[in-house]
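Homework help board

Subject: predicted structure for assignment chain

Our instructor gave us this sequence and asked us to write out the predicted structure in token form, then describe one feature. I got the tokens but I'm not sure how to describe them. Can anyone check?
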Amino acid sequence: MKTLLSILLALFSFGGVVNAQEQKRPDPQPAPETAESFRLGMAGWSFHKFNLDKTLETLQRADVKYLCIKDFHLPLNSTDEEIQAFHKKLAESDVTGYGVGPIYIKTKEEVDNAFDYAKRVGVKLIVGVPNYELLPYVSDKVAEYDMQYAIHLHGPDIALYPDADDVWENVKDLDPRMGMCLDIGHDRRNGKDPVADLEKYQSRGVDIHLKDVTDATKLGYSVEVGRGILDIPGFVRMLRKVKYTGVVSLEHERNMDNPFMGIAESIGYFRGVVAATKE
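My token output:
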């Protein structure tokens, strides 16, 4: 009787192991920004030394699904067939190209080319850096094409659009679809507070470049998010307060020959802040 009982217990135990193995192992939790009004993306400039395949491999591994397209991955003179092939490759990696740029513009012809390019690519957002005198013409094109236009600010490095205040002063009386790509690192390097600027200029906050910097002067430089002086938790809380619905795109600008660990660290830190600040 004892032997029979032992055999039955062994069979029962074996069956339990089989059943446990047949059960599906639980998947990871979704990315913490999934439940937010904003989306996490990548600025194409982060990969200016790498081809599209390496870019998409990185986005896949980081579970980032939005890319702002730079012309070194999809040139402005691309054919419709090349654009179609480009989007096919993105779709295979579960990535969406949500906008194009930054595109630097010095003439009306370049404005025309940029809008034609964006239309053919099939996006509704251009991140651009037009000369000041072209802004009324850009505003007309925004209305004609029904697109958003985000002016990328550059801190103290170049004279055009050093911070959010400057962009606001130049677009406040133009088409409401014209606004800023609030680069929070460059804004801070020009002595500004990007958390306060996001709130102040929320009506013109079209796109965001996420980064961190070491100082609030021209001497400051880009580092992994979380290693600089920016108030990232405060910025995430402000994204929620103003109900920002666009993309927050990491623009990684450190160790550009091998940026991948820095990209992973920055995305991980940002997502940790998003999760930790949920109420």
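Reply (TA_rk): Your tokens look well-formed. For the description, you could write something like this. The beta strands are 39-43, 66-69, 96-105, 125-130, 148-152, 178-183, 205-210, 212-213, 222-223, 247-250. That's the kind of observation they're looking for.
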